[in-house]
Amino acid sequence: MAEKKINVKLLSMTSNPVSVVYAACKQCYSAKFSGDIYSKSIDGTVSQEKQEDFVRRIVASGHESPLEHVNFTFAIEGVSRVLTHQLVRHRLASYSQQSQRYVKEDDFDYIIPPLVKKHDELKDYFIEHMRSTQELYTKMINFLKKQGLEGEQTNQDVRFLLPGACETKIVVTMNARELIHFFKVRCCTRAQWEISKLAYKMLHIVQEKLPSIFGDRSTKCDWLGYCPEGEKFSCGRYPIKE
Ligand SMILES: Cc1cc2nc3c(=O)[nH]c(=O)nc-3n(C[C@H](O)[C@H](O)[C@H](O)COP(=O)(O)OP(=O)(O)OC[C@H]3O[C@@H](n4cnc5c(N)ncnc54)[C@H](O)[C@@H]3O)c2cc1C
Predict the structure, then answer these.
(1) Same structural domain, 29 and 141
(2) Which residues form the catalytic set?
(3) pLDDT score of 187 more than 80
(4) 90 lines ligand 1 (CB under 6 A)
């Protein structure tokens, strides 16, 4: 068992995303067939620059539903169960998470929060707690094994001991509209530090892949031009709405 660091990898994304969004938007206002609009976008009849410019204007206008046709799938590791508990609250996404029922946690890794890491004494307490939890977990698994029980039958009950700090792995698919929403709330300084770290890693990946949609905005204040959090919670980057 050891401390783990966050790792995010883009597994796949919709091909020709700008042309897909362009054709979907154009379909709303055109008598033509989006299949033909798409073909003309792909073969260069409509320049990439023109498509990107159009998509940028659509995003800025708040016409967001065409963005739902573009999907991104991420593989994520080195995050805590505390993080994934928050992540899965985002309902317009698909998830596949490593199970503590099918995968025995006989050598679990963990995430150390920054405030704990900052103080050697706290870090020592924390690591000792991880070690003793692991010891107890193994002791209980072995106890049940002697009763003839093993595998998911025992893992599913003994896992109740495991800490929120326990490292987990998850695959997440979100469409571009949901990603924008996710970044708006989770890149904000009010969001919890670990999910915010994940959101920024995902943001940097999609900004590089698809600048016409994700541009250089992240948090809700970037989109609104003011902070909706009120004086008590505002980080001060934008003025508070009176
Ligand atoms: C700083 C911060 C603190 C938080 N604190 C808490 C807390 O103390 N307790 C707690 O329980 N949660 C908390 N949350 C989680 C929060 O309440 C949301 O559950 C989470 O952010 C998911 O966001 P969402 O529901 O907007 O988005 P998603 O599920 O990603 O949905 C995206 C959007 O789709 C629409 N939508 C989705 N489902 C529905 C629906 N059923 N009906 C209508 N519209 C829908 C909404 O417009 C929604 O914004 C916190 C979140 C943040 C960022």
Answers:
(1) no
(2) 186
(3) yes
(4) yes
